[in-house]
């Protein structure tokens, strides 16, 4: 349900036109090429103009997702969840009132608006976490967090959020640093940094030194085109999980067995395998790995603060239970995947695949026009009064 005043802030029919517009997907090659253009010209005006047109469409798609029938009523009726719809509409209104940037000064002003939208994304992600916490504590019998439709909602919501984060981060990076987020990355270097960060968080959580991580790279000269932050985030989540299970399985041992990483490059994929001897996972529990609410969110949610969300390594150890789900979602965004093979009683192998086809377009969800339905406060009151 969306506040009537927020709906009225947009021109009549404008939201419907946006809802019927198609998303323009981008590829890593597209981002990289634009980055080279901006590096030569020093002018990110073209990306600002693209975002002026594209962001309202993506925001409207996100609005359709949070107002879809996949969201259970006990979730959609929460004020914090309704604030997310309100934020999307307000952001669409801000963009609609802002003229298309045609010169450097207008591009600078528009970039300031994009920074505010980026911060709003952080707030929305925090709100989603708080909604999950409220539901877990108050209505655990009313909602099935393992329901496929609900998990599908989280998949679509977080994928669309990732798509908007990419465009916002890309332009701000071009504006501030003159280069694209898409770059030739060295997987070995990213794996080392993710290892350092995951071990640091693990050590802080448990109060003693985390297990060692051994890294084997079969081809150190491979430099796939990717977004370094996204590879780091995926590896960080996988490593964090492997380190945790290793500690909990071997906590009475004098020596903790190491976690092992193997990096290999083929013609189509770069694959990173993370192996642990953390006891493995029963077959009956494997599907739970991909549930966005796999563990109790209370500890994580209470300690999150909006400024910290950019640095995911500062997010506490326990939390929403969605680390592997997000890692898989990130990998699939540009055509890759995350697969987990486990042996109960021994350990787990996680295979992170990076697709090397640079022209692969973003893997984003889209709803058809008939799926776009949401209510205003006024329409809900009218219906309620008619039933009295």
From TrEMBL:
GO terms for biological process: regulation of glucose metabolic process. The keyword ATP-binding applies. Residues 231-358 form the Histidine kinase domain. It catalyses: L-seryl-[pyruvate dehydrogenase E1 alpha subunit] + ATP = O-phospho-L-seryl-[pyruvate dehydrogenase E1 alpha subunit] + ADP + H(+). Its main location: mitochondrion. Its EC number is 2.7.11.-. It is an enzyme of class 2 (transferase). It is found in: Mitochondrion matrix. InterPro entries: AK/P_DHK_N_sf, BCDHK/PDK_N, BCKD/PDK, HATPase_C_sf, HATPase_dom, His_kinase_dom. One of its GO terms (cellular component) is mitochondrial matrix. Keywords: ATP-binding, Kinase, Mitochondrion, Nucleotide-binding, Transferase. GO terms for molecular function: ATP binding; pyruvate dehydrogenase (acetyl-transferring) kinase activity. Belongs to the PDK/BCKDK protein kinase family. This is Protein-serine/threonine kinase.
């Amino acid at each position: 349900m969306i506040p009537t005043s927020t709906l009225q802030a947009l021109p009549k029919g404008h939201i419907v036109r946006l809802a019927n517009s198609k998303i323009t997907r981008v590829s890593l090659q597209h981002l990289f090429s634009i980055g080279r253009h901006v590096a030569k010209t020093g002018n990110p005006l073209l990306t600002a103009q693209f975002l002026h047109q594209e962001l309202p469409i993506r925001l409207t798609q996100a609005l359709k997702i949070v107002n879809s029938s996949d969201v259970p009523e006990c979730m959609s009726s929460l004020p914090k969840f309704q604030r997310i719809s309100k934020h999307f509409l307000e952001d669409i209104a801000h963009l609609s009132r802002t003229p298309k940037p045609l010169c450097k000064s207008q591009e600078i002003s528009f970039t300031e608006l994009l920074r505010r939208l980026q911060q709003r994304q952080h707030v929305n992600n925090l709100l989603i976490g708080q909604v999950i916490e409220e539901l877990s504590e108050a209505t655990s019998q009313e909602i099935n967090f393992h329901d496929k439709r609900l998990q599908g909602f989280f998949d679509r919501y977080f994928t669309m959020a990732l798509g908007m984060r990419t465009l916002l981060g890309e332009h701000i990076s071009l504006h501030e640093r003159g280069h694209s987020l898409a770059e030739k990355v060295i997987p070995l270097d990213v794996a080392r940094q993710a290892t350092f960060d995951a071990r640091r968080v693990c050590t802080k959580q448990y109060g003693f030194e985390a297990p060692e991580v051994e890294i084997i790279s079969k081809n150190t000269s491979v430099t796939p085109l990717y977004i370094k932050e996204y590879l780091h985030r995926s590896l960080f989540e996988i490593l964090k999980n492997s380190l945790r299970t290793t500690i909990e399985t071997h906590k009475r041992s004098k020596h903790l067995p190491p976690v092992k990483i193997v990096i290999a490059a083929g013609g189509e994929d770069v694959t990173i395998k993370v192996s642990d001897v953390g006891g493995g996972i029963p077959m009956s529990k494997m599907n739970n790995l991909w549930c966005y609410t796999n563990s109790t969110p209370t500890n994580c949610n209470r300690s999150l603060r909006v400024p910290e969300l950019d640095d995911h390594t500062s997010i506490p150890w326990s939390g929403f239970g969605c680390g592997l789900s997000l890692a898989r979602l990130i990998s699939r965004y540009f055509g890759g995947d995350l697969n987990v093979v486990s042996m109960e009683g021994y350990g787990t192998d996680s295979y992170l695949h990076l697709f090397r086809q640079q022209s692969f377009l973003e893997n984003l969800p889209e709803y058809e026009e008939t799926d776009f339905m949401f209510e205003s406060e006024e329409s809900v009151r009218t219906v309620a009064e008619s039933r009295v």
